[in-house]
Amino acid sequence: VGGHMKPQEGSMKPKGVKRIIGIGSGKGGVGKSTVSTNLAVALARQGRKVGLLDADIYGPSVPRMMGVNKRPASPDGKTIIPLQGHGVTLMSIGFMLPAEKAVVWRGPMLMGALQQMLTQVEWGELDVLLVDLPPGTGDVAMTLCQKSEVTGAIVVSTPQDVALLDARKALDMFSSLKTPVLGLIENMATYHCPNCGHEAHIFGEGGVRTEAEKMDIPFLGALPIDLDTRIAGDAGDPIALGDSPMAEAYASLARRFID
Ligand code: ADP
Fold this sequence. Notes:
Blueprint: E1 17-25, H1 32-45, E2 50-54, H2 62-66, E3 83-85, E4 88-92, H3 93-96, H4 107-119, E5 126-132, H5 139-147, E6 152-157, H6 161-176, E7 181-192, E8 199-200, H7 207-215, E9 219-225, H8 227-235, H9 245-257
Parallel strand pairs: 1-5, 1-6, 2-4, 2-5, 6-7, 7-9
Antiparallel strand pairs: 3-4, 7-8
Helix pairs in contact: 1-9, 4-5
Bound molecules: adenosine-5'-diphosphate.
Residues 25, 28-34, 61, 187-188, 223, 225-226, 229-230, 233 line the site of adenosine-5'-diphosphate.
Organism: Gymnodinialimonas ceratoperidinii
Binding site for ATP: 26-33
Keywords: ATP-binding, Hydrolase, Iron, Iron-sulfur, Metal-binding, Nucleotide-binding
């Protein structure tokens, strides 16, 4: 995947893919990739054919979080065979670039890379393709919404004011692109002390739900700050794989945005 292609006119929607859902956030670090990987795994466990496209060009986390990192094959030098991990079909910009290399691309190059990952990857038949977007309101999110007949977007935020401020901008972008927002997810909502049982609201309380109500957008659910979630993500075995309460939380989230 490189940036030297100019985006073509017309649709970038892969043929066999029923729905494309973008997962966005206003800020980085709010857990967008954690949520994306776990939702993908949860959907796969529910028998869906799921793809996950890591379009977070500036910080692709899917290779690490899904425990898959090798270069995808391209037998004819054009089509790209996606990788498989935990029952999910995977493509990440990170598979194609050395891990330490910074991506310094301008808009048209980003769009070229996104287009390649959508149209040259053999996604096959999928019920849903989740796209882990870069944070913010940049070219990748805009191109995806304008060119790929996206079904809708999910926005992840923490309850903290500075995160919500930026989440609102992302919501505004989706609305101006006429992309339906399927719902908001509050991540890092609470912290439950394993020693004393006290529950702390480290980033504030309920802000995302309130925002969803104000904007008349579905509130999909709240996820706590959870040490095992972080450890599982770092180990490449998303928490949604097991049978913990967190896995159940992701399973019920996954049921909420796909009919
Ligand atoms: P983003 O994609 O928004 O940049 P990440 O998913 O990479 O965010 O998450 C940022 C960091 O926070 C990662 O180290 C991840 O493991 C951790 N993290 C995300 N969600 C949670 C959570 N609910 N509990 C604990 N750690 C989390």
